[in-house]
């Protein structure tokens, strides 16, 4: 049963230089309690997708185009008033961001920043909200929470700040948590701690998570289902095990080959094979793209790929891919 | 916090010491013999000597300096050459109008400029913003004395709503006191209003593009809270700095405004003393103005620590 359903979401940026199609017709569903990964390179539209669901895209330039549908618990979010949207943000759907160093307000105490979310959405008084803020700090594993309430973000480490962000995001028991590259800016050891914390709290609170990342390791560890985005479009979607076992889109295939693997290194000790990168660059999104957006970088591309955009097709086991050459990709991958 | 305030307090001492030395030597190093100017063109040598003795100018320079410091430490700024009254008393008589005018100008400027600047940043590049910017450019371009005459002509002469000029001490009733201050405050305040509004807008615009504002919006907070707490508190340091500079400029701007509106404050005392070469008064006034500016700076420095928890020198 899906609680969040995105259909044909398109977000375009209107600038002096023309229209940039940052997100161009993306659809997916999020089931209650599920963790869905959205992966892709920088600029593929994954963050804009997240911000579009929250309607936090810059209002001067960005537009969610008519026909886009973001349905949350039966309500169409793109049609809500700004005031109704504010009721949902932070309460039913909340978000954590990539940069813990800059995402917290430097001149307000940690306690205030957690508590204000609580009393904004629950109507309890400020003292109780502060009590709740302390509970949240305990929950995200910050020691000495009573003292930390009165500290400012600059007195905390990056990992602790991201814990505070998580505490804020989960303080009203949201149904959906959108995590936009939550561990990218952190040290590797801290990354693991933060991911473990998120998974643990998700179990405890039953929150569904959209995990946006470019890190396939994070995807493998945390998600049940994955959407792969390229140039503002969804190119593949599959349950996580299925995706790693049988990547169908050449782009996904390329991403997998770009992961360093210890076991291969061990077998070929001394003759470490070069990592395979995906040649070329992400296409510009300010002009309409003919055919498949990945075709210019794709080893499998044919004449057809350059003129006709491949539709998303179901290849069984909930595995969708948008590629004309799936059969050939599979023979190489196997 | 207390340690910070105490450190800031001590930091003002060297500044005041330099001002003291500067004020003393300023008049000794200035070209011309003060005694000759005071005594007049047809003074005899004996007259000159009498004036020098009266001013203490016949003593060796280090003794003069010692005497000046000794008196200063006792709060004695000397005696006016012409009226024979203690300078401290002359200044004290004139402090109220100047203080009232400075504070009311500041109140008018700040209480209008900050909301206007915040709205302009919030509505950036829209109609409200453009209107504010036009006003800011005009306000900055129009000299205070011109604004003063325009205001007098409209509100005092044509509409007869407010007095043309003059000052009523607060002791004579609150409303007459306020009535006399309205036009001078606006005339003097327009420039600062424009300046503070611009800085508020620029500073807010920068803050509004920060990640933590997006975080605040992702919590669904009301626009008012995002603007006035999350954004304005971060934008406050440059705004407060400019308000501080504004106060310093105001103290000098008061001279013109007091003349136009015929207000018997420190500005008028300064003009009169300079014209009559009444050096002890000029010295005293410089000391008072310098102390006022140092005090304002101190208050600004302390306010930084309250506004931004990261500031600790």
CA-based gyration radius of chain A? 21 Å
What value does the average pLDDT of chain B take? 88
Strand content of chain A: 15-25%
| β-strand amount of chain B | under 5%
Structural class of chain A: alpha/beta
CATH architecture of the largest domain in chain B: Orthogonal Bundle
- Helix share of residues of chain B? over 70%
CATH topology of the largest domain in chain B: the name is MetI-like fold
Rough outline of chain A = globular
Give a count of the beta strands of chain A, DSSP E runs of length 2 or more: 13
Shape of chain B: globular
Strand numbers in spatial order across the main sheet of chain A: 7-8-9-3-10-11-13-12
Number of helices of chain B: 12
* SS-based class of chain B: mainly alpha
Order of helices and strands of chain B: HHHHHHHHHHHH
The span between the termini of chain A is 34 Å
Structural overview:
The complex is a heterodimer of chains A (334) and B (313). Chain A has 334 residues and is α/β, with parallel strands linked by helices. Chain A has helices spanning 46-54, 82-88, 100-103, 110-122, 126-139, 145-148, 158-170, 188-205, 216-222, 240-245, 250-257, 262-267, 303-307, 326-333; strands at residues 2-15, 18-31, 35-39, 62-64, 69-72, 75-76, 93-96, 176-180, 208-213, 225-230, 233-239, 313-314, 320-321. In chain A, helix 5 (126-139) packs across helix 7. Chain B contains twelve helices and no strands. Chain B has 313 residues and is mainly alpha-helical. The longest helix of chain B has 38 residues, at 223-260. Chain B starts with a helix and ends in a 6-residue tail after the last helix. Chain B has helices spanning 2-29, 34-39, 45-55, 61-73, 87-122, 127-141, 144-158, 174-208, 211-218, 223-260, 266-275, 279-307. Helices cover 78% and strands 0% of the residues of chain B. The model of chain B has no long low-confidence stretch (mean pLDDT 88). Chain B has two domains: 2-73, no CATH class; 95-308, Orthogonal Bundle (MetI-like fold). In chain B, helix 5 (87-122) crosses helix 8, helix 8 crosses helix 10 (223-260) and helix 10 (223-260) runs antiparallel to helix 12 (279-307). Classes of the chains: A alpha/beta (334), B mainly alpha (313). Chains A and B meet through helix 2 and helix 4 of A and helix 9 and helix 10 of B.
């Amino acid at each position: 049963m899906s609680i969040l359903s995105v259909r044909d979401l398109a977000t375009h940026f209107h600038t002096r230089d023309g229209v940039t199609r940052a997100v161009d017709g993306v659809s997916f569903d999020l089931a209650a309690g599920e963790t869905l990964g959205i992966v892709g390179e920088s600029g593929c539209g994954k963050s804009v997708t997240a911000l579009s669901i929250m309607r936090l895209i810059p209002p001067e330039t960005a537009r969610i185009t008519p026909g886009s549908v973001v349905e949350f618990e039966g309500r169409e979010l793109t049609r809500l008033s700004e005031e109704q949207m504010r009721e949902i943000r932070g309460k039913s759907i909340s978000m954590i961001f990539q940069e813990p160093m800059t995402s917290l307000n430097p001149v307000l105490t940690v306690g205030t920043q957690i508590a204000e979310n609580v009393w904004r959405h629950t109507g309890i008084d400020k003292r109780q909200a502060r009590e709740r803020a302390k509970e949240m700090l305990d929950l995200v594993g910050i020691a000495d929470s009573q003292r930390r309430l009165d500290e400012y973000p600059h007195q905390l480490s990056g990992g602790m700040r991201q814990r505070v962000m998580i505490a804020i995001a989960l303080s009203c028991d949201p149904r959906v948590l959108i995590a936009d590259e939550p561990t990218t800016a952190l040290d590797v050891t801290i990354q693991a701690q933060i991911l473990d914390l998120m998974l643990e709290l998700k179990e405890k609170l039953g929150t569904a998570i959209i995990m946006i990342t470019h890190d396939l390791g994070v995807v493998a560890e945390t998600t049940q289902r994955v959407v792969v985005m390229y140039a503002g479009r969804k190119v593949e979607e599959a349950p996580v095990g299925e995706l790693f076992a049988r990547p169908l889109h050449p782009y996904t295939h390329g991403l997998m080959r770009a992961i360093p693997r210890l076991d291969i290194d061990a077998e070929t000790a001394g003759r470490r094979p070069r990592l395979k990168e995906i040649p070329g660059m992400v296409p510009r999104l300010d002009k309409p793209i003919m055919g498949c957006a990945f075709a210019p970088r794709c080893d499998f591309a044919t004449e057809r790929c350059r003129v006709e955009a491949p539709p998303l097709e179901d290849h069984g086991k909930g595995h969708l891919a948008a590629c004309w050459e799936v059969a050939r990709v599979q023979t190489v991958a196997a | 916090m207390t340690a910070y305030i105490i450190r800031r307090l001590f930091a003002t001492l060297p500044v005041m010491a330099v001002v003291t030395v500067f004020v003393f030597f300023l008049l000794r190093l200035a070209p011309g013999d003060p005694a000759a100017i005071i005594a007049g063109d047809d003074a005899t040598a004996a007259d000159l000597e009498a004036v020098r003795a009266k001013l203490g100018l016949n003593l060796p320079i280090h003794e003069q300096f010692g005497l000046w410091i000794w008196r200063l430490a006792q709060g004695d700024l000397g005696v006016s050459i012409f009226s024979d009254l203690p300078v401290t008393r002359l200044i004290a008589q004139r402090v109220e109008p100047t203080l009232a005018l400075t504070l009311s100008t500041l109140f008018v400027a700040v209480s209008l400029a900050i909301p206007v600047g915040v709205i302009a940043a919030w509505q950036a590049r829209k109609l409200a913003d453009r209107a504010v910017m036009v006003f800011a450019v005009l306000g900055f371009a129009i000299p205070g004395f011109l604004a003063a005459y325009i205001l007098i002509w409209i509100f005092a002469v044509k509409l007869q709503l407010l007095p043309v000029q003059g000052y009523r001490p607060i002791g004579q009733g609150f409303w007459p006191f306020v009535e006399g201050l309205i036009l001078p405050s606006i005339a003097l305040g327009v420039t600062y209003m424009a300046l503070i509004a611009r800085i508020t807008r620029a500073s807010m615009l920068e803050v509004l593009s920060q990640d933590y504002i997006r975080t605040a919006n992702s919590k669904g907070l009301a626009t008012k809270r995002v603007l006035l707490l999350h954004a304005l508190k971060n934008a406050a340091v440059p705004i407060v700095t400019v308000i501080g500079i504004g106060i310093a400029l105001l103290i000098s701007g008061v001279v013109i405004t007091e003349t136009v509106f015929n207000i018997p404050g420190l500005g008028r005392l300064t003009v009169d003393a300079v014209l009559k070469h009444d050096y002890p008064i000029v010295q005293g006034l410089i000391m008072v103005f310098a102390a006022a500016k140092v005090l304002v700076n101190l208050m600004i420095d302390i306010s930084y620590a309250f506004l931004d928890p990261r500031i600790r020198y």
